[in-house]
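Final report, Chapter 2: Outcomes

The project's central promise was a pipeline that accepts a single protein chain and returns its three-dimensional structure in a standardized token representation, suitable for archiving and comparison. That pipeline is now operational. To close this chapter, we reproduce one record exactly as it appears in the project archive, with the input sequence first and the structure output second.
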Amino acid sequence: MKQRVVNTVLILVLALNLYVGTRHSLKSAETAGDADVYGQMHKFSTVLEEVRKHYVDESMVGYENLFDGAMDGMLKKLDKNSAYLNAKKHEILQSDTQQQFGGIGVLISIRTEWLTVIEPMPGGPSLKAGVLSGDKIIQIGDKSTKGFQIQDAVDLLRGEPGTKVTITVRRGEDEEKVIEIERAIIKTKSVRDLYGRGDFKLLENGIGYVRLTSFSGKTATELEDAMAQMETAGMKALIMDLRGNPGGLLSQSALVTEKFVKSGQLIVSTEGRNGQLQDKLFATAKTHRTLPMVILVNGNSASASEIVAGCLQDLKRAELVGMKTYGKGSVQSILPLRDGSAIRITTAKYYTPSHRIIHEQGIEPDHKVEMTDDQMRDISMQRSPGGYGHLSEEEQGHVKAAKDLQLEKGLELLLEKIKAN
């Protein structure tokens, strides 16, 4: 009995010492101040070890998992564009900018809580396997996709070329179909015509149309090829569609813009901490085009898209039609780490030639034309190579009746300019 009492007292004393010691370590670090890096690191290491010792689920407290979580949280607290990229996410990012990756070739969005196919890429594995626009992907492998974010789907659908993935799609009200797709190398085109192909046929009255889906490594070259093709056909004016374009490489935004402005013209400047000028990008091309232009933008036009739109609007080189852009005017630098991971950190902000700030402000169009996300999806399905005949009668009716009000306004403005000339 006495021994039991002694043991109990010893346990209580040890517990009290642990509590007091931990509290003292944390308090010392907390009072060390922001400038005391050693005190803060001591606080971090103390918390790390306490979590490893006492957290209920031992499988969650490996050093790699805890450090990844700490870095992710640290960078997310800075701003929504800074992030920690593990090795897999870093590899995906590199593949995207190089316009090549292993996958199934499909453009997806979230609609009524489900992953929805907006467009199977022409000639891609999905289209060959029978995936159609409007299909709801309700399962990938054995995982339900309800509540998925786009990145969740990307992580599961991409993989080594030659490997297979099984998806379950829902068509119409109750038809479900299980489709096995073999992944392949997907080489994307960032410059497309109205129907997602490479025909670049002129629209009415000699008006050309190009859609830039991103600013990747070959965007400027692809645009030049498309422009040459339309100029040969007698193009009189141009619509550049940047709707839904999330941005990409800063260098490519400059190469695209300089096709339409004089050599030596400032395109964009970047300023870092305390307004310190970091860089200025000028047009360097020997020749430029002077044909009338309209640029289509919406709330999903961001970053490099806003640089192009903002510059050409500043210089009154193009009129903007659509809705206010996203307002992502900051520069993210990718800093690789030795294990294949990387950190993406905001290092500067963009300014247009007239020194308008883009970040969290966006670019207001010259002609505001509202269109909802549902209307934009219906337009995409209307132009999809997969068609939409498999949809329910009600859904077919919506897609068939959809009108691209922003494109129509752009055509109207350019027609007036053509007639005036």
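Archive annotation: Residues 1-32 have pLDDT under 50 and may be disordered.
This record, like all others produced under the grant, will remain available to the consortium after the project formally closes.
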